[in-house]
Amino acid sequence: MKCESFDLISHQFSKGATLIEASAGTGKTYSIAFMVLRLVVEKKISIDKILVVTFTKAATEELRERVRERLYEAREGLINGAAAEVENSDPTIAEWIAKRSELGQLKDDIEELTNALSNIDQAAILTIHGFCNRVLSEYPLESGQPFKSELSSNISAVSREIVEDFWRRNLYQRSRDEVIAITKRFSKPEDLMDLVRAVNGGMVEVVPKVDSLDVTLKNLIAVERQWREWIKNSGSTLKLFIEDALRESWIAKNKRDKLQRMLDAVQENPAEFFSYVESAFLKSHKAKVVEFLTKLQPPLQLIAQLNELSSQLPISFKSELLKSYSADLESRLDSKNMMGYDDLIKRLADALTQEGSSLVKEVGNKYRVALIDEFQDTDAEQWSIFSTLFLDSDHYLYLIGDPKQSIYRFRGADIHAYLRAKSECSYHYTLTTNWRSTPLMVEAVNTIFTMRDDPFQLTGLDFNKVSAGKSEEWRSPPLLWWELAPQDGGKPWNIEYSEPLIRNNIVSEIVSLLNGEGVKAQDIAILVDTNWHANEYKDALALADVPSITNTKSSVFQSREAKELWRVMVALEQPRDLRLAKQALSVSWFGLDGESLVNSKSWDLVLERWLTIAHDLSLRWQN
Q1: What are phi and psi of 602, to 5 degrees?
Q2: Which of 371, 400, 375 is nearest to 51 (CA)?
Q3: Phi and psi, residue 251, nearest 5°
Q4: How far apart are CA 398 and CA 34, in angstroms?
Q5: Which of 125, 253, 431, 433 could form a disulfide bond with 22, CB atoms 3.0-4.6 angstroms apart?
Q6: Rg (the chain; Cα; Å)
Q7: What is the pLDDT of residues 488-523, one digit of tens each?
């Protein structure tokens, strides 16, 4: 299907499904609000008959305000009779007003806009969960839902109950060997919570398929017994040979520690040891290890079985939990008259497919238009809801999103669901102007993604070039590609050495930018792949006197500042405890370190002063 440029003012609204691809910065939110304006005025559709669904609550509030602004601007322009008389008039609104004025229907248009503004609070601008909740709440009989179920954003307590019950059922009655095998991989029920959180988010697929937990445990324990028997008979021989090899310097210096660690753990992880041992020997002594292993004859087939079964056990254990988790969760939530947010989507999707239900007709009559924002973050279940309700010849169904930004796989978003929906759309448009980036930046991105015909390596996912709506340029090149020069001899860089070099160069570049004109620290972002890397950059920037913050998932209570605050608060709670007082004085706030405290001639005075202050503050705290 050919992708055409979407014209906000002259687009002819068509019933059925229409896809609008909107790259970052192309005015998606503005376009949706403008579409609502045109539907209200040109199609005479009342504001409460238009459904707008977006991804977050913040986005719904922004969209509602944008819709209100567009309606108000248009009404004021039509009342004034000429767009030029409207202060700070939007040029797109002005052009649309001029076209409407030519039709001679100002009175009707103004009336439609007045009614829409009066009823703006009735506009259905909702998140997907908000929409599902509204339908289930308004049509409990048609959807087969209990009345007044409590909607909870946190069902982790119920999930934890299920996991703990599963843990008891699957460990308490098992043999000692079975329990040891399981607890090597999962030490406590909490280790399974990430899995059930993924289930609650609608994103679980078990691969590869493995035997049941009972069969896997039986086979694993049998193989482990055979392996322990071999180690009992031959382990000392193996250990003596490696000790001799280390003593005689047959093993490469940079591999000795690693090999020793693997030898210490050979009973638990033989596959790793035997796959590495030969490569650890110097080339001049490899014949010795080959000869030794030939005589020793380690049971490599048994080791391979052990390795495979060890890998299968965690999958079998998780699969056992998943067999009944969803049904168990639904049953327990029903018994508590509760619903989770993701449960809303499943319940509505199920309700819409119930034979004889009038729910599809009732909801279909309620709305004439559905505009689905951020559609790239949908999944198959959500698409089934929208397509069942609105994919017909009676509704205007518009799907707006950017498949290039489909990054929420961890929350259940499914790019393949997007592509299936795309194939069911009769019309396909794209927003072609980027209003956010400078012309050279737009050109740079276009260049990168058009260097090959299939940049995303996924059929149906194309790159549509955009043009720049801005004219001003940034003084520096918009896009730079940095890479380290090859080392001597062309050897690849070791990450241990390359990361500090890259980090130091980035920090230097930031300092250079800040010393120029018009750039502040808050204008700069550094994207990294782990929290650890974020902290490394934060420390490096601090050394360069550049303030920074990290946006991570780690708890604020794990930060150094929180730990230091805790030390001080504990000392204040027990102001006469000298040990706690010394710990409090060692935090970074007071500019003292352990050495200066110990060697300070005025230490007694510092401590006495602290105890006095701590006692006073403790009394204030208690009072």
Answers
A1: -100, 20
A2: 371
A3: -105, 140
A4: 13
A5: 431
A6: 33
A7: 777 788 888 899 999 999 999 999 989 887 788 998
Beta bridge partners of 50: 369
Sole residue written with tokens 């029903």: 334
Q: How many CB atoms lie within 10 A of CB 237?
A: 11
Site of tokens 């940079």: 254
Q: Hey, is 207 helix, strand or coil?
A: coil
* CA–CA separation, 382 and 417 (whole Å): 9
323: left (phi over 0), alpha (psi -120 to 50) or beta: alpha
Beta bridge partners of 370: 51, 397
CA–CA distance, 175 with 437 (Å, rounded to integer):
64
516: phi > 0 → left, psi -120 to 50 → alpha, else beta; which? beta
| Lookup result for tokens 């210490």 | 264
How far apart are alpha carbons 611 and 590 in whole angstroms? 14
* Beta carbons within 10 angstroms of residue 167's beta carbon: 18
Nearest to 342 by CA among 140, 205, 153: 153
Q: How far is CA 213 from CA 21, 303, 376, in A?
A: 46, 20, 37
Q: Give tens-digit pLDDT for 583-619.
A: 888 888 877 766 666 665 666 777 778 888 888 888 8
Torsion, CA 560, CA 566, CA 567, CA 569, rounded to 10:
140
SS3 state at 429: strand
The residues pairing with 456 across neighbouring beta strands, listed in sequence order, are none
Neighbours of 534 (CB within 10 A): 19
Per-residue CA distances from 608 to 113, 422, 581, 613 (Å): 74, 74, 10, 9
Residue 273 CA to residue 115 CA, distance in Å, equals: 76
The Cα–Cα gap between 157 and 154 comes to 8
What is d(CA 166, CA 149) in angstroms, rounded to the nearest whole number? 26
Q: What is the pLDDT of residues 247-259, one digit of tens each?
A: 999 999 989 999 9
| Distance between start and end Cα atoms, the chain | 74
Can you give the pLDDT at residue 83? Answer: 43
User: What does each C-alpha distance from 155 to 56, 140, 531, 537, 555 come to in angstroms?
Assistant: 19, 22, 27, 36, 20
Answer whether 242's CB lies under 8 Å from 259's CB.
yes
SS3 annotation, 381-425: HHHHHHHHHHCCCCCEEEEEECHHHCCCHHHCCCHHHHHHHHHCC
Q: For residue 164, give every residue at least 6 positions away whose Cβ sits within 8 Å of its Cβ, in sequence order, or none.
A: 189
Judge contact between 406 and 418, C-beta under 8 A. Answer: yes
- Give the DSSP H or E segment for 372: strand 369-372
Instruction: Choose among 517, 457, 506: nearest CA to 482.
Output: 506
Supply the pLDDT for residue 506. 95
Sheet of strand 427-430: strand arrangement: 4-5, 427-430, 16-21, 396-401, 369-372, 50-54, 124-127
114 near 120, Cβ under 8 Å? no
